[in-house]
Specification:
By secondary structure, the chain is α/β, with parallel strands linked by helices. Helices cover about 40% and strands about 15% of the residues. It contains 15 helices and 13 strands. β10, α14 and β11 form a beta-alpha-beta unit. The radius of gyration is 21 Å and the shape is globular. Bound molecules: beta-D-glucopyranose (2 copies). The site of one beta-D-glucopyranose (BGC) has 8 residues, from loops.
């Protein structure tokens, strides 16, 4: 019977652009996701985050749902263009997050604030986006503003969510905003995200409660080779996906093999003296998002090359300089995203992190699954596959803990169905359903199940 430590944090997660709506209200400026979703053909169904779950106007109702779920923490993100459009503090936007944080605290729920979940102010993209060093400085200024505003009440700060996606899906494959397909620019973005992270941690520490914990959320890829002969393909993908961020953030240096692998694309001259040290700020806990493992093999040119890495195909590959790597379709079962369900990757990933960074605790800042939910005539959603997915992955977390990993918490992705980026509203990850049209909130079976798990502090059975 898998068990969790006494003080294990149980939570749920969302992100600003995916749930808030109110895209042009109360002084909010446009973000790259407004521009991207308003461009015909880039998001499935022409969906946008203009209304999304209307969380901006339904804050109290959603806070009450969190309270009824009994979670100890809620991970949300702050919309940068809502609070600092054109580099100027926007009081009504800041007020919204004050209400959110206060509403959580009143209900005994710990706020976990993510500063950047992909919605860069459009004017910063117009000035070059993450490809430009200045964006890292602007990010630190925005971090300071948020620290000054809610830093007396927020005890856990996450700088970036999945910089892998921001850099490679935004600037290399182009399936995410801003939709650029420039590999060299994507690697510059990697660096300026790392730098921005470090500068933001410093800016926060200067103003927030000294007891606050600093973190970053990475979508680490658990990379496996088809056979031992594929070890170099595993190494190369691990460097691009994982060590490109872990290296500077936790060790103060880019991996030398990453620089060598990408030498034909960039000379990395955007990394200045002192940058790697600046990126490497002491962290209290590392956030890990996990959905599925990655399977690769060396491609020798003898057959058609498969690039099925589980991400949407874009105009170009997110995998820079990986011409000799093949991404292999993994055995099912699959979620609605086409991602295979394999919780063993989560245990292995947590144990690898424990081995490589023994002093760094982790928390699962996202884990969950999209399935095509069916509403019964009496309004129920019997999403037993989502329950099974969550049960398996929580068991995997407990196994990592019993093998020595220091895992502090788990956040289900997501509290509610929301705007699933380039998939629009066609993919639903919520444990609470958001009814199209009415936006009514309906608890799925998984929400009832999670409430019971949280209350018991353990899995049933
Ligand atoms: C609707 C959107 C709504 C979303 C919420 C969609 O089906 O078209 O307007 O914001 O559901 O999940
Ligand atoms: C992101 C979420 C997203 C989820 C499912 C993560 O990559 O942080 O915003 O909805 O995965 O795709």
């Amino acid at each position: 019977m898998p068990t969790f430590p006494e003080n294990f944090v149980w939570g749920t997660a969302t992100a600003a652009y995916q749930v808030e709506g109110a895209w042009n209200e109360d002084g909010r400026g446009p973000s790259i996701w407004d521009t991207f979703s308003h461009t015909p053909g880039l998001v499935a169904g022409g969906d946008t985050g203009d209304v999304a779950c209307d969380h901006y106007h339904r804050l109290e109702e959603d806070l009450d749902i969190l309270s009824a779920l009994g979670v100890g923490a809620y991970r949300f993100s702050i919309s940068w263009p809502r609070v600092r459009p054109n580099g100027t503090a926007n009081r009504p936007g800041l007020d919204f997050y004050e209400r959110l944080v206060d509403g959580l605290l009143t209900r005994g729920i710990a706020p976990v604030a993510t500063l950047y979940h992909w919605d860069l102010p459009q004017e910063l993209e117009d000035a070059g986006g993450w490809v430009t060093r200045d964006t890292a400085y602007r990010f630190a200024e925005y971090a300071a503003l948020m620290g000054e505003t809610i830093g007396d009440r927020v005890r856990t700060w996450i700088t970036l969510n999945e910089p892998w996606c921001s850099a490679y899906l935004g600037y290399a494959s182009g399936v995410h905003a801003p939709g650029r397909t420039e590999p060299a620019a994507a690697l510059a973005a990697v660096h300026h995200l790392n730098l921005g992270h470090g500068l933001a941690v410093q800016a926060l520490r200067a103003v927030v409660d000294p007891a606050a914990q600093m973190s970053v959320t990475l979508n680490l890829h658990h990379v496996r080779g088809v056979s031992e002969a594929d070890a170099d393909a595993v190494r190369q993908v691990d460097a691009l996906a994982n060590r490109a961020f872990l290296g500077p953030m936790l060790e103060g240096a880019y991996p030398r093999d990453l620089i060598a692998d990408t030498a034909s694309v960039t000379d990395w001259s955007f990394v200045r003296d002192g940058d790697e040290a600046a990126a490497c700020q002491p962290l209290d806990v590392l956030g890990v998002n996990y959905y599925n493992p990655t399977l690769v093999r060396r491609w020798d040119g003898s057959s058609d090359r498969s690039t099925a890495d589980g991400h949407q195909d874009g105009a170009a590959s997110p995998w820079i300089a990986c011409e000799n790597v093949e991404f292999v379709q993994q055995p099912g079962p699959y979620t609605e995203m086409g991602w295979n369900i394999d919780e063993t990757g989560l245990t292995e990933l947590l144990l690898r992190l424990h081995r490589d960074y023994p002093a760094m605790p982790t928390m699962i800042t996202e884990n969950g699954a999209a399935f095509a939910d069916v509403v019964t005539p009496n309004g129920r959603v019997h999403d037993e596959r989502r329950v099974d997915y969550l049960h398996r992955h929580l068991t995997a977390v407990a196994e990592a803990i019993s093998a020595g990993a220091d895992v502090r918490g788990y956040f289900v992705w997501s509290l509610m169905d929301n705007f699933e980026w380039a998939h629009g509203y066609s993919k639903r990850f919520g444990i609470v359903r958001v009814e199209p049209g009415t936006l009514e909130r309906v608890w799925k079976d998984s929400a009832h199940w999670y409430r019971d798990v949280v209350a018991a502090g353990k899995l049933p059975g």
